[in-house]
Write a structure and sequence with these properties.
The chain is an alpha/beta fold. 42% of the residues lie in helices and 19% in strands.
């Protein structure tokens, strides 16, 4: 499994092309070899591909706009072709988190994922916590997977959000084997709150600095043939995000041999 960097982590440093290019060099200098494009400035795909290549990076995943996927499908595929990127990601469903919202999402995606697959691309869905709410006897994520084949739908399993929802990341990694081409890694830190029942005491942390069982998570990912694990730190709480990425890389490379 390759260890990558999710550029949403450094989005504040990628508001223009100069910052975007400098950020590629910084993550490459840390040791990362794969990046996910999300939260970066407008750019030409030819430029992004060349700058990534110059820094020894591949772009293997994006977060892309759903409306553009559905209404500008050919352009979406061409953009990812230019990036040499096989996985077209969606950060979250924009529809209501209901049965009707799920149906709306699937109806819009049905022709798109087939077109992606026909051109050697795969649609990849990223979860937060709400996908684990039960609708009847199954979760939103269960029902989404039932609607599309593994060739059409990959899951970008965010292990932090699984645990935040009260789920077992290892169990879900095992359950999603065959769809788990990409994974999001971050740790969970608990801090004291005056109200001990306040669940907002959870924060994103650099990997190895929180409470998540990464020994079991990495073992499960390797058994599930997960292709790339991206370090994604949604919030660094005032710390330099590159330093947080560096500490996470050091922990994952030294403890598990991931690079």
């Amino acid at each position: 499994m390759i260890l990558g960097a999710q550029f949403y982590t450094v989005r504040e440093h990628c508001k223009d092309l100069q910052g975007f290019e400098e950020s590629m060099k910084k993550v490459a200098d840390i040791g990362y070899t794969s990046i996910q494009l999300s939260g970066v400035c407008a750019h030409e795909p030819e430029w992004a591909y060349e700058k990534a290549r110059e820094n020894g990076l591949t772009i293997d995943l994006t977060h892309y706009d759903l409306k553009k996927m559905c209404h500008e499908t050919e352009a979406c595929i061409a953009y990812h072709d230019t990036l040499h990127c096989s996985h077209i990601g969606l950060g979250s469903s924009p529809y209501p988190k209901t049965e009707e919202g799920l149906e709306h999402l699937c109806e819009n995606l049905a022709p798109v994922v087939k077109e992606f697959a026909a051109h050697g691309k795969k649609f990849a869905y990223h979860n937060h916590h709400w996908e684990f709410f039960r609708h009847g006897d199954k979760t939103f994520l269960d029902k989404l997977c039932e609607r599309f084949s593994p060739e059409e739908l990959a899951i970008i399993l965010d292990v932090f959000w699984v645990q935040a929802a009260g789920g077992d990341p290892v169990a879900w990694i095992k359950k999603l084997k065959g769809r788990l081409d990409r994974v999001h890694f971050k740790d969970m830190k608990i801090f004291l709150h005056e109200d001990i029942y306040n669940m907002d005491c959870r924060r994103v942390a650099s990997i190895g600095e929180g409470i998540m069982n990464y020994d079991a998570i990495i073992e499960a990912c390797l058994e599930a043939d997960a292709g790339i694990g991206y370090v994604e730190l949604d919030d660094c709480y005032g710390e330099d995000p590159f330093e947080c990425l560096k500490r996470s890389y050091k922990y994952m490379s030294e403890r598990y041999g991931l690079k």
